[in-house]
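Any chance you could type out a protein's amino acid sequence plus the matching backbone structure tokens because I've never seen that pairing?

——
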Amino acid sequence: MLRACAIRYGTSWDKSLPYAEFSYNSSYQASLKKSSFEALYGRRCRTPLFWNQTGEKQVFGPDLIRDAEQQIKMVCENLRVAQSRQKSYADVRRRDLTFKVDDFVYLKVSPMRGIRRKAGTKIIGPFKIVERKGEVAYKLELPSNLFGIHNVFYVSQLKKCLRVPEEQPPLEGLDEDLTYTEHPVKILETSEKVTRNRRVKMCRVQWKHHTEYEATWEREEELRATYPGLFANHL
């Protein structure tokens, strides 16, 4: 919903946030079996189209408290059912990941600076596991240039190394907090996205620490504002 607003309204996208909030709060929620507005206030949300069809009723005194308690119980029960359903879906898809001491693993690091984070994580290493810490963390043997980094990581930050390379790739541009500065290096192609009332120019760009396969589509106006030099050699 927010992405659609950003594309349609461009730089003034933040002005559409109240409408997005209204749409979300007045929309039917499967987990609640009603809208969040109705769950909170006990009636449907008024709109210009349904001003007199909100199903209001007058409730006073003890009846008001009893009605509120019933609403809370019903919402809690619906949430428990929804959470149980989501957990069952997650359990089916979940695969427990475990490693052993002396295994080699890759470490996932993320870009924290740059126009977009959707370029995704990259992996560095591999590094040797020297100790297991509890059920979900491992201590790694890091090289000397990463001496200042805490060397215990959660399993979600690790990826199994199936074959240890003879030489480890250099760790270029990596900061002490295991982040790196990301920026686009090349425009691969351009396109136009047509919305209801405007055309948005888009560029497919390759990022410094990623391959062409991992290229992402970005708005041209944002790229020109942040990286004007990117267009110097692009015809």
Observations:
- The radius of gyration is 26 Å.
- The mean pLDDT is 77.
